[in-house]
Design brief:
Length: 371
């Protein structure tokens, strides 16, 4: 799927050259960033909307432009084992390289209006803003950072100079070479494993399962990036016993038992408003299946379940981190990230004490802080 562009110039604000593309014999240019491999003629955009063919090359049209900036709890990404309780400066752009009919952020990810990108900031502006507000990390989220690859990497570089971590919230639909470059600059990631069925991926997202599994395995085995997985459970679509068994068994057998899994509740939205919200019982069943198959840390999301929110020791069963939605309570990890009761190591990136950001969400403006 491609769309015609308005007249775009390399001199326009937010337009920068990219390098993951090649020319075809028929005069088109193929984008090599993601497995969609959009083949574009001059003046066309790819399905992601923000990458286009201009002057015979693929350009990014949203560099330095965002739909807004907000400080969130890190648990909202969701990351439960990465600097718990700390604030993360979150932002996204517009567009997406998947076409999920159930998108829960469709107003941003499906946007075809660059005019909605009202906030602009250089990478240094974002790093300085995160430092100003005491954020331990910056999250590339709301829409998939894969499609604003160049901007996300430049922001990550600026953040690393200030010891601010970078968090990618992604569907993992990216080709090998850009994947390797991208994750060199990330410190943590939550990958959206939307299902464990190729038919689901093709019919409901317009994508394929295997490239996502390859991204997940790459991050797990070839990088030092801390990774957690999220699956939005849609009643009657990806919540069967058979699929949950297969998914969680693959996670343990391929990645090991320490990769946390989040099973989150669907609510009717975008093009799937005729399906009921996910029952809490379904989320609890998924969590139980995961743990029976050896996943040590399985969580419930988008539903109120303090037990399903909390972290427990895989060895003795003690509650290590109490959570009620995004608010932390009891903390039973020592300075090494080990259970105070039995000494078993809890997988993750922890400090001696948790952060105290809580559940609040704070929109912020960028302009002026770095000047």
């Amino acid at each position: 799927m491609t769309t015609d562009t308005e007249n775009i110039s390399l001199q326009d604000e937010g337009v920068v050259p990219t390098r993951y593309w090649h020319a075809l014999d028929d005069g088109r240019v193929q984008c090599d960033l993601c497995p969609r491999e959009c083949k574009l003629r001059e003046g066309q955009r790819g399905l992601c909307f923000v990458r286009a063919c201009v002057d015979g090359q693929i350009v990014l049209t949203s560099y330095g432009r965002s739909s807004g900036y907000c400080i969130d709890p890190i648990e909202k990404k969701p990351l439960n084992h990465y600097l718990p309780g700390t604030p993360v400066l979150s932002f996204g752009t517009a567009g997406c390289n998947l076409a999920c009919k159930f998108c829960q952020n469709w107003d941003i990810s499906k946007s075809r209006e660059l005019d909605r990108l009202m906030d602009s900031a250089s990478p240094e502006d974002i790093a300085n803003t995160a430092e100003h507000y005491g954020c331990r990390s910056v999250a590339y989220t709301y829409n998939d950072p894969v499609i604003f690859h160049e901007y996300a990497i430049d922001v990550a570089r600026a953040c690393r100079e200030k010891n601010i971590k970078s968090v990618a919230v992604s569907a993992g639909y990216v080709c090998d070479e850009p994947r390797r470059e991208f994750y060199q600059h990330m410190d943590a990631a939550n990958i959206d494993l939307k299902a464990f069925d190729e038919k689901f991926y093709w019919k409901l997202t317009g994508a394929h399962l295997q490239p996502v599994l390859e991204t997940i395995e790459y991050i797990n085995k070839k990088t030092d990036v801390w990774m957690e997985l999220t699956t939005l459970l849609i009643p009657g679509r990806n919540d069967s016993e058979q699929e949950l068994q297969a998914m969680t068994q693959w996670v343990v057998e391929t990645l090991g038992p320490d990769v946390p899994m989040h099973f989150t509740a669907f609510h009717p939205d975008y093009k799937m408003t005729d399906i009921a919200p996910t029952p809490l019982a379904t989320l609890r069943r998924a969590r139980r299946i995961a743990m029976q198959n050896g996943v040590r840390y399985a969580y419930i999301g988008n539903a109120h379940d303090p037990q399903g929110d909390s972290t427990y020791c895989h060895q003795c069963g003690a509650r290590l981190i109490e959570r009620d939605w995004y608010t932390l309570g009891e903390w039973n990890l020592d300075a090494r990230g080990c259970c105070k009761q039995c000494g078993a190591r809890c997988a993750g990136v922890f400090e001696a004490q948790p952060g105290h950001w809580g559940a609040k969400r704070q929109p912020v403006r960028i302009h002026g802080l770095s000047r």
